[in-house]
Amino acid sequence: MRAESNEYIENALKAFLPDGAVVSYRLFGNGHINDTYRIECVEGYPRFVLQRINGEVFQNLEALNNNVERVTEFLREKIKAGGGDPDRETLNLYPAKDGQKHYTDERGQCWRLTLYIEDSVCYDQVEKPEDFYLSGKGFGQFQRMLADFPAGKLEETIPDFHDTPKRLEALRRAVEADTWGYAGRVQKELEFVAAHEAETHVAMDMLRKGELPLRVTHNDTKLNNIMFDAKTGDVLCVVDLDTIMPGLSIFDFGDSIRFGANTGAEDERDLKKVSLSLELFECYVRGFLEGCGGSLTDAEVRMLPMGAKLMTLECGVRFLTDYLEGSVYFRTAYPEHNLVRARSQFALAADMERKWDEMVKIVEKYA
Ligand code: GN1
Ligand code: MG
Predict the structure, then answer these.
(1) Does the beta carbon of 332 lie inside 6 Å of ligand 1?
(2) Which of 67, 160, 300, 367 satisfies CB 3.0 to 4.6 Å to 296 for a cystine?
(3) What pTM, to 2 d.p., does this model score?
(4) Can 6-118 and 129-366 be said to share one CATH topology?
(5) Is 267 in the pocket of ligand 1 (CB under 6 A)?
(6) In the CATH hierarchy, which fold is given to the domain comprising 129-366?
C-alpha cells in the first residue's frame, strides 16, 4: 500500500491547522488512487479527511482543484436552497492558512482537507438491496443537481476518461511494449477483449452523432463513493469528485452496476462467485431513474444496459493494461492484483451478456 512518510503528512497538516490542533491521523478508506487519512483533533475542532492527490494520475492539478471547488460551491448553494444541510450533503473543503483550498508541498504534491462527515458510513459491497436502490437515487439526484451547472467551467481532469476505444488502444500499446513480459499470461483475456472490440465504440459513436447528450457526470460512481447517514440509513453525500467532467449519463449508471451489482468483489479470485445480480440491477435502475427525475432521454434510458457492460469491460481493460505496465496506476495489495481484478470484470461482463434480455426488460419496466 502506498503511504506517505509522516513528515510530509505532518507538514501538510501544518499548512491547514494551527500547531497542537492535530491529535492523530490514520489511513482511511479504500480508494485506489489518492492517499487518504482521517484526522483527529483536540476539542474545539471537527474531524477531518486529509488527501494527497495522486499527481501521476491527475496531471493537471490546477484543473482538478478548480473543478472540485466550483462543483462543491455550486452544490452547497443548491443544497441550501433545497433546505438540506450543506455541511453534510456535499464535501466541504477546509481552507489552508493562506486562504487557498489546497496546499502544494515543496515536492509539488497537492493536498486538501475536507470536513469528515460525522455519523456516516460507506460500503464496499451491498449489504441490503435497499441501500443499492438509495445509492442509485443518490447518484441520479446528483446528476440532476448538476444539470444546470455550466459545463464549460469544468475542465477535463483526465482526457478521454471513459472513451472505451481509446482504453483498448492503450491496452494494445501495453501488449506491444510488454515491458515486464506478462503478455503471454493473458492471452485468454486479450481474446475476450478482441471479441468485444466492435461494440466498445457504440457509446462514443452515439455521442458524436448527437444521439446521446453530453452532461456533467461523476464518472466514478462506485458504491464506496457515496456516504450514507449512519442513523437514518438514507443516502447523504456523493464523494470523490476528482473525475467530475462532461460525460455520459450511462457511464455513471454503468459504473455503479459494475461495482455494486456484482455478487462478488471487484477483486474476487473465485470467478464462480462473480455474477450480475438481477435483483440489485433492478434496485439500481429504479433508484437511478427516480433520482434523475425524468431528465434522461429515451436513448439514454435504452442504453443503460450497454452502459453497464461498457463500464465493466473498460474497467477490466484498464486493470489489465495496468497489470502489463507493472501496476503503476491503481493501488495494489499484491503483484497479481490487477490481473485478478481484470478477470473478475470480464467474468461479470460475460454474465451480463447471458442476462442481457432480462436487463433490457428491467429497464423497460421502469422507463
Ligand atoms: C479508481 O479512486 P477510486 O478507487 O474511487 C479509478 C476509477 C476506477 C476505480 C476502480 C481516477 O477509483 O476510474 O473505476 O478505481 N479512479 C481513477 O475501482 O482512475
Ligand atoms: Mg473513491
Answers:
(1) no
(2) 300
(3) 0.96
(4) no
(5) no
(6) Aminoglycoside 3'-phosphotransferase; Chain: A, domain 2 (3.90.1200)
Residue whose cell numbers read 469491460? 313
Distance between CA atoms of residues 157 and 69, nearest Å? 13
CA 51 – CA 110 distance, rounded (Å) = 8
Q: Return the residue whose CA atom lies nearest to atom 1 of ligand 1.
A: 32
Q: Counting beta carbons within 10 angstroms of the beta carbon of residue 285, is it exposed (0 to 12), middle (13 to 18) or buried (19 or more)? A: buried
Q: Which atom of ligand 1 is nearest to the CA of 57?
A: 11
Residue 348 has pLDDT above 70, yes or no: yes
The stretches of 124-213 forming alpha helices (DSSP H) are 129-145, 164-177, 187-196, 202-208
User: Where exactly are the structural domains of the chain?
Assistant: 6-118, 129-366
**Residue 337 Cβ contacting ligand 1 at under 6 Å:** no
Dump pLDDT digits (tens) for 27-85. Answer: 999 999 999 999 999 999 999 999 999 999 999 999 999 999 999 999 999 999 999 99
Assigned fold of 6-118: Phosphorylase Kinase; domain 1 (3.30.200)
**In a 10 Å sphere around its CB, with 0-12 CB exposed, 13-18 middle and 19+ buried, how is residue 36 labelled?**
middle
| pLDDT at 4 (0 to 100) | 73
Best of 53, 220, 321, 322 for a ligand 1 pocket test (most atoms within 8 Å of beta carbon): 220
- The residue whose CA is least distant from atom 13 of ligand 1 is 220
CB of 33 closer than 6 angstroms to any ligand 1 atom: yes
Average pLDDT over residues 270-274: 98
3-state secondary structure at position 42: coil
Q: Are strands 245-247 and 110-115 parallel, antiparallel or unpaired?
A: unpaired
Which residues lie below 8 Å from residue 141, measured CB to CB, with a gap of 6+? 291, 292, 293
Cell numbers of 3, please? Answer: 503511504
Residues 6+ apart with CB under 8 A from 84: none
